């Protein structure tokens, strides 16, 4: 929870009725915000590339960078409000 607070996704509320709530409106928060706060998307291609020739390493790294960019863009398009059932 601390990472979500530090990342600006949640805010803590003190007191008897305290707890956590969204730091912004649900239509202003995306899945990308949550992922970035919890564990930034990092490509672990080092181990994969160790056994490859340098030219192949570059191709693999570029492919993973493209996938990472695509994932971030797609996650940024999904708002928390989109995930709630209708009427909630």
How would you characterize the overall build of this protein?
One of its GO terms (cellular component) is cytosol. This is Rrf2 family transcriptional regulator. InterPro entries: TR_Rrf2-type_CS (IPR030489), Tscrpt_reg_Rrf2 (IPR000944), WH-like_DNA-bd_sf (IPR036388), WH_DNA-bd_sf (IPR036390). One of its GO terms (molecular function) is DNA-binding transcription factor activity. The protein is mainly alpha-helical and 88 residues long. The protein has one domain: Arc Repressor Mutant, subunit A (Orthogonal Bundle). Helix content is 50%, strand content 9%. Strands 1-2 form a two-stranded antiparallel ribbon. 6% of the residues are buried.
